[in-house]
Amino acid sequence: MSRMLVFGSSGLLGRALMSRMSVKAVGTSLTREAEDRVKLDAVNAEAVRNVIEEVKPEIVVNLIAERRPKFWGDLVSLRKVNVDTARNVAEAAAIYGADLIHVSTDYVFPNGGPHSVNSPHLPTNSYGFTKSEAESAVRSENRDAIIVRMPVLYGSVERFDECNLSELVHRLYCATQPVSLDTWAKRRPTHVADVAETLAQIADNPQAWRHRNIHVSAKGWHSQFEMGRLAAQLIGIDFSMLNPVSNDNPERPRMVDLELDTYTPFLDRYRSLEQGLAEVYESYVSVG
Fold this sequence. Notes:
The protein is α/β, with parallel strands linked by helices. The protein has a domain at about 5-155 and about 190-220 and about 255-270: 3-Layer(aba) Sandwich (Rossmann fold), CATH 3.40.50.720. Helices cover about 40% and strands about 20% of the residues. The chain is built from 8 helices and 15 strands. The protein has helices at about 10-20, 45-55, 75-95, 125-140, 165-175, 190-205, 225-235, 275-285; strands at about 5, 25-30, 35-40, 60, 100-105, 110-115, 145-150, 155, 180, 185, 190, 215, 220-225, 240-245, 255-260. Strands 3-2-1-4-5-7-12 form a 7-stranded parallel sheet, sandwiched between helices. A two-stranded parallel sheet has the order 6-15. A two-stranded parallel ribbon has the order 8-11. The relative contact order is 0.15. The mean pLDDT is about 95.
């Protein structure tokens, strides 16, 4: 396995990938420094070039993104995090001859599908718009980059608000009255450890994937209400505490269906939400 440098290694997917790679990876983080993690602001292009020159990775993975809806209204800041950092990492990886894996989102597409890996983008919110811009910036700076799109992720958390599913568990765990949960939109929640395994296997043979777009996703569709029922059953909360509502939101596509390629590494072994939810609950309890 080649030496890897992971930008955004302290996040949910970053920690899973660093754990999978073990001593073969060095990570960066804006705020959380650690033994295998360098503190770095990737908005600074010179700092990005310097760390790549110092680490001399064969594979660079960019996981940096601001996905949280509470920041969608600040397009200037959102572009700095989602677009400028992507451009800086792609440019520096190309300069130093490292292969690049850039992680993107299903939100570059509108409602419907299945969307192929080369379908035109038509995002419906500022997060998807900036991630679409980021893909264009990456392709402009680094034509051989490998772009991997995925839906909403979940896994072991360090804070209750670290992923949508742990936030949902927190709401239910603390509820003293019925919690309203959406039945309208559906996503395919995907476990970070499964995505990390796919990324690691791609990194093991990057020449086979250069200049390609790849889709990864678990197979099961779930609304927020359906996820809530699974979580309530796990926690031991009566279903009467769940209030189904339909929140039709023009900024949020109802269902974004990614067309999946059966040749994508490890994709056939992605776990279901029913299999992965217990891990989220256990980590939530441990940090709560």
